[in-house]
Structures are given as C-alpha cells and as structure tokens.
Amino acid sequence: MGLQNYLVLSSVLFAIGLYGALTKRNTIVILMSIEIMLNAANVALVAFSRYITPTLLTGQVFAIFVIVVAAAEAAVGLAILISVYRNRKTIESDKIDLLKW
Amino acid sequence: MGLDIAFWVLAAVIVVAALAVVTLRNVFRAAISLILCFVGVAGIYITLSADFLAVIQVLVYVGGISVLILLAIFLTRDVPEGSQSNRLRLPAFLMASILLAIMVFSVMNTTFPVSSQKPIEQTTGALGQMILRDSGYILPLEIAGVLLLAAILGAIVMAREK
Hints:
The structure holds two protein chains of two kinds. Chain A is mostly helical. Chain A has helices spanning about 5-25, 25-50, 60-90. Chain A is elongated, with a radius of gyration of 17 Å. Chain B folds into two domains: about 1-80, NADH-ubiquinone/plastoquinone oxidoreductase chain 6, subunit NuoJ (Four Helix Bundle (Hemerythrin (Met), subunit A)), CATH 1.20.120; about 120-160. In chain B, about 75% of the residues lie in helices and about 0% in strands. In chain B, helix 1 (about 1-25) runs antiparallel to helix 2. The radius of gyration of chain B is 20 Å and the shape is globular. At the A-B interface, helix 1, helix 2 and helix 3 of A face helix 1, helix 2, helix 3, helix 4 and helix 5 of B.
C-alpha cells in the first residue's frame, strides 16, 4: 500500500466535498460537505506523516489541530444556522440574502 | 496483504458514503452517510498506524459533530424540502472533476522521498511528548484552547433565545 493510494483517496474525497459545497442549497448540507473536505486534508496529512517522516509525527499533530478547528467551526456554523432559521424561517443559501443589495 | 484489503474496502465505503452525502435528497439520510464516512476515515487512520487519531476521530466526529449536525437538522425542519441543487450544478461538477484530474496527475508524477523506517507502534505517548516538550507545539495548543472557548461562547450567544 503506497503513499499515492492514500493521496488519490484524499483527492477524490476533497473533490466530492467541493462539489457538494458549491451545488447544495441547504446550508446544513454545505457544512457537511466542508467537513468532508477537512477530513480529506486530514487523510493526506496523516499519510504524509506515515510514509515520509514515520518517527516524527508532525503530520498527526497538524491533523489534531485541524480537528480542533473543525469542531469549533461546526459549533459556530450550526449555531448561526439555528439563529438564521429563527429569524427568517429558512436555511436555503439563496434565500438568506439580507446582506445582498 | 491484510492492510491492502482493509484499505480498498475502507476507501470504497468512504467514497460511496461521501457521494451519498452530496447526492441524496433526504437531509437526514445524508447526515447518516456522513457518519459512515467519518467511521471509514477512522479506519483509514488505523491502516496508517495512527491509533490515537483514529480514537479522536471517533470521539470528535462520530460522537460530537454528527450529533450537532443531526440536532441542527431536527431544529430547522427543512427535511421535507430535501437538499436540492442550485443552478451551478454542471459548472461545479466540471470544476471538481478538473481539480481532481490535476491533483491525481500531480500525485502520480511526483516521486516522494518515502522513508523505509518503521512507524511508531503506540502514538499516544509520542504525540504527547511532541506537543508538550520544549520547542514543541505548546503555543498552538494554548491558542487552540482559547479558540475552543471563544467558539463555545459564540455558539451559546448565537443560539440563545432572546
């Protein structure tokens, strides 16, 4: 099992997440796609850590920090969505246009 | 050999689950397949001998973020309308495919300096040493703590009833 298999898997996962984040109307599904992209980045980091510097673990430390930021992002993003739903009764991304002139 | 089979099975599960997330109309089912995708990524970490990260993945993603997403779906009640696509569908598909082709091409045509050393068997202690030792990652760790505190306070303020 080589490094390249893991990197290709990570690329496929990232492309799927990008497609979802660009095309979906429901903002919760957009957040889910962003989580898929963050997971793809983590897979690449851990694969590099395993195959290029197996005893240093730098990539795994980076992956831990990515997970921390992803958790914070999910909490704040979903809180914003709930607040928006309470005020506008919708979470469709093209109907939340309060800031659009 | 066993690792090869595990990798291919997990990769197939992850890709199918991720595709289900972006194609299923029912938001709740999409969230369930997202959980399956997270579990598969935890398995991928195990095949990369990153045991601590696999446990963290299960705890934080499968246990935490998934519950958060499911609760948000329950609280917003947009399930009957489903997750429809906007007009960007074809351009976004083309862009994602081109990006994927470029990334696969560059990965396949790069020679990486792959090390032949054995990976560390149990990474938990080594990761702790790595983060907490002198000239380690103590400052990013403190900043991560402040970030989590700010995120929790922000989430409470945002979601609170007026």
